[in-house]
Amino acid sequence: MSAVVAQSLHVFGLRSHVANNIFFFDEQIIIFPSGNHCVKYNVDQKWQKFIPGSDKSQGMLALSISPNRRYLAISETVQEKPVITIYELSSNPCRKRKVLSNFDFLVHKFISMAFSPDSKYLLTQTSPPESNLVYWLWEKQKVMAIVRTDTQNNPVYQVSFNPQDNTQVCVTGHGMFKLLRFAEGTLKQTNFQRGEPQNYLAHTWVADDKIVVGTDTGRLFLFESGDQRWETSIMIKEPTNGSKSLEVIQESESLIEFPPTSSPVPSYERVVGASSHSSLAMPQVFAIAAFSKGFVCSAGPGRVLLFEKLEDKDFYRESREIWIPVDPQSNDPSQSDKQDVLCMCFSPSEETLIASTSKNQLYSITMSLTEISKGEPAHFEYLMYPLHSAPITGLATCIRKPLIATCSLDRSVRLWNYESNTLELFKEYQEEAYTISLHPSGHFIVVGFADKLRLMNLLIDDIRSFKEYSVRGCRECSFSNGGHLFAAVNGNVIHIFTTTSLENISNLKGHTGKIRSIVWNADDSKLISCGTDGAVYEWNLSTGKRDTECVLKSCSYNCVTISPDAKIIFAVGSDQTIKEIADSSILREMSAFDVTYTTIAISHSGRMMFVGTSVGTIRAMKYPLPLQKEFNEYQAHAGPIIKMLLTFDDQFLLTAAEDGCLFTWRVFDKDGRGIKREREVGFAEEVLVTKTDMEEKAQIMLELKTRVEELKMENEYQLRLKDLNYSEKIKELTDKFIQEMESLKTKNQVLRTEKEKQDIFHRERMEDLLDKQSRELQDLECCNNQKLLLEYEKYQELQLKSQRMQEEYEKQLRDNDETKSQALEELTEFYEAKLQEKTTLLEEAQEDVRQQLREFEETKKQIEEDEDREIQDIKTKYEKKLRDEKESNLRLKGETGIMRKKFSSLQKEIEERANDIETLKAEQVKLQGVIKSLEKDIQSLKREIQERDETIQDKEKRIYDLKKKNQELEKFKFVLDYKIKELKKQIEPRENEIKVMKEQIQEVRNFLLYNDLWPQGVKIHFYNLTKQVRKVLLWRTLPHMETELECFHKQNTQLELNITELWQKLRATDQEMRREQQKERDLEALVRRFKTDLHNCVAYIQEPRLLKEKVRGLFVKYVQRADMVEIAGLNTDLQQEYARQREHLERNLATLKKKVVKEGELHRTDYVRIMQENVSLIKEINELRRELKFTRSQVYDLEAALKLSKKIRPQEVLDSVPSKDKLSIAPTVRLNEQEETGRIIEMQRLEIQRLRDQIQEQEQVPGFHTLAGTRLPSLSSEVDFGVQTK
């Protein structure tokens, strides 16, 4: 055998559907089934001891404990055969006392058991279709009696012994309540059911022959000797405080005291299935338990009723309720307490009540607490901790903390501590959880839910999600050994995520079937996966490709693991073998010996291997694997093992299965080689706490401290007040007591003196009475002696007299005997003679009777013949009458049939006419409604056509105006182009003149400087003279430029008007758009409200009446009255005409819209081009302004210089200049003449006036607008200023 040993340490779970699944062994120890074990659990010291099930057991069905608490009977199914095992609980460990396995009768399984009061006999009930009740003398394995309790395949829920009588038993089931008595080797029924049969779910015995029974309709019955004595019904009612409470009604007669006992639970699935047709308002009584003051019974989901006996009366009433508490960690706290209580039991001292529920939970309550909270509902507490109520689907552990993480189909995630055997954290969610993995640090978990994959923090008192991935239905996930990565399976794809950036870094694709298991190697460089496609792949995470692969399509793999050195892969699957895989090939296979391996785990030391099977057992074996059957097999679970793990230090083995139980095992090697791994550091005690939680707790602590201080001060003040009051009261009481004591002392002294006087008086009186009594006694003795002598003499005389009388009486008796015998003889002779006479008379009378009978028979015969003839005559007469009547009746029937047909046809015609009238009226009403609605539609269509005609006319006018504006703008564009060309032509010669003048000035300068003939003032004179020439040339262009500026200004004003008009139109369209948007929002809100109301209506889909009312309400709420008229039979010609007109108008409108859009685009491009040209012209004008300003300053300097040069030597200057220079200077001198200047100015003013007139004409053109909003400054003022200076 293998040297690897596993010892079960602790289990987290309960199998609540085992009949009679919980009871007390003593005051501290309870026994309940978990997995394939019975667990002895010490409530105070928290330790567990295990009673394992039989080898190859398929699960426990029922339990029973003997009244003396020495024996435990377990009903199991072993290899499809029923077995009853009886254990002796007093031994440690518990040993098997007897095994009942060979039966002479047909049996499928035993569903209920009970020990007799003296524990010598065992009562067992088999399941249908046999339904045999077997009475055992179990120590000798002898069947004392057997009887079939039911012949209609109805389920039987409970059997029990009378606590005071070994021979009386009770059986309850569906439609069955039987009391049987064992006598002369048979079980005979002693009661007969009366009334309607009920579905009796549970019962318990009362003193002597009384028994209380509960049904699936919330009714309780008391039977005495099989006859019903009392009945009560439990009804669910809505109390005033908002929570459901139960009230007991309809009581009759009294109950008697109940002895303490436990009540087994019937098969929950069968009861729910059998009672599915019953009323939902009736609570089902699954369990009843009795105690000295009364009894408790389950009364619907989450509630237990306590009945107590009244002191002054002889019956029981409900005293209070006990509720299962609401679980705040549940996803739906309002439903967390909706659990059916299946079994209840009192402790031997009746101090504690424990209960098991349909959700595999254990609750307890101290009965003294219920007495304290009398009149108010009491609440259960968890006996240990909340347990899983559905199969466990995920299991994980970590390195830094002694934690186990599990998830289950009950939508919960739980964290257990395998050192303290406690529940650290748990939380329920909306979706089912399929897989879980715990980070090596113990601070994070990743859970695969049905809708998403969630990464969550483990806080000090909560499990909080901080990242979600859209991986639906993830069945496998696992953190790497280093914790920096985690893998999640999505069907046949493995997603790799990093825990630092929380991103998906790789996707491993290759499996063709669902992936069932993944495992990391020691250094996290590789990942091994297996699936239902028979493939085992080894993935290289650096490249994302497969390093090795092994495919065996005939095998569907369940689990895979890898050796610590990462060289060998171990896989188990549906082919009932363990495979060693290395380098893409199977090295060897080890048979599983007719079971399927579901999971496999190998120790970190590489010396131990554990596998889980489909029958719930675990096998421990050494590595390398043996070829023979060398392993230790242990009973563990009552279903296939789903997950199996070893802790990091190889000390504990963890297993989870479909039965919802979690086992922890201590594992070791008998050889002790390299198994134990010493931890260098202890487990971490750090926990995660959010900042907000800390701040909230700190705030709460501060508030509590302040509250404590306030309470201290208040209590001290109250204590001082009370001390003062008490001191005053004590003082008053002491004074009062002192006064009373003084008065009592005086009274006591008076009473003592009186007592002494009375004593003296009584002593004297007693002496007198004693003397008197002695004298009277002597007198009485003398008198009595004399009377006795006289009486004795009388007695002697009477005795002699009685003797004489006796002798006389004896003589008289003898004489009487002789006379009596003589008289008797005489009488006998006389009566015998008389009897002879009577017999002769009797014979004669009999002969007469026979003669009379013969005569009677003869007359009777003649009378009968006469009567037969008369009857025959009457019969023929009446038959003839009957035929006549039948013929007349048939004739009348035919006539009546014809009349009836006529009547019915006329009635049908009348009804049809009435129906036709009604239909015609309804059609008339409908047609009137249709006509009204059509008239309204015609009016609305006419209005719409009129409005559309108006809008079309407006649009056409607008299009015409826009066309005219477009033409005018084109004309204006042509004019502007022409003006720009003219201006350019005018600017070019002036630039040439400026250039020539600059050259002349430069030559004069050079000449003067070269000859050095004139002083600096003369140079300035010639220089200024040249500037003056330029200024005069500029003055000639100023009027023309001013007119252009005026024109541009008018254009700007017109453009401003156009912009304001467009803005007004834009605002109007914006307002219309907002109105439409508001309408759209209103319609969307209406649709949303309608959807919400419709969704609320869908909730009543199972209730037609409510659904009809809700739909009618929707119709009234959302359908307008005008919509209620059914529109039918529209005029087709009118519809066609309306459709044709509408189509024509829409087509015209579409073409007009296209034209407007196209022309708008053209105008927009023209506007942009004109705007650009205006901008360039404005820039040129600004440059000319700057030059004009500069020129003005030079003109001013020139005038000053001319005045100065005239004063100096004008003639010398003229002579010194060469002839060429004279020719060029001469015209400039003429420009300074005032007359010529005035003429030039007048010409410029005329030009300006002409340009202004032209601008006014162009402003009258529609559609022309100015481009800028600012008015350009006029040049006329500057010209006037120049003239004034000249």
Q: How does this model look, in words?
A:
The protein is built from eleven helices and 58 strands. It has 1286 residues and is an alpha+beta fold. The strands form 14 sheets. Strands 18-19-20-21-22 form a five-stranded antiparallel sheet, with no helix packed on it. A five-stranded mixed sheet has the order 23-24-25-26-30, with no helix packed on it. The protein has a four-stranded antiparallel sheet with strand order 1-58-57-56, with no helix packed on it. Strand 34 (412-417) and strand 35 form a beta hairpin. Helix 4 (691-1011) packs antiparallel against helix 5 (1016-1098) and helix 5 packs antiparallel against helix 6 (1104-1118). The longest helix is centred in the middle third of the chain and has 321 residues, at 691-1011. Residues 238-266, 1013-1027, 1121-1130, 1205-1231 and 1264-1286 have low confidence and may be disordered. WD repeats lie at residues 385-426, 508-549.
Global structural class: alpha+beta
Q: Write down how many β-strands occur, each being a DSSP E stretch of 2 or more residues.
A: 58
What is the mean pLDDT? 82
- Major sheet: size, sense and barrel closure? 5 strands, antiparallel
Q: Enumerate the spans where pLDDT stays under 50 for 5 or more consecutive residues.
A: 238-266, 1013-1027, 1121-1130, 1205-1231, 1264-1286
Strand content: 25-35%
Helical proportion, percent range: 40-55%
Strand arrangement in the largest pleated sheet: 18-19-20-21-22
How many helical stretches?
Answer: 11
Using the CA coordinates, give the radius of gyration.
62 Å
The outline comes out as elongated
- State the end-to-end distance: 136 Å
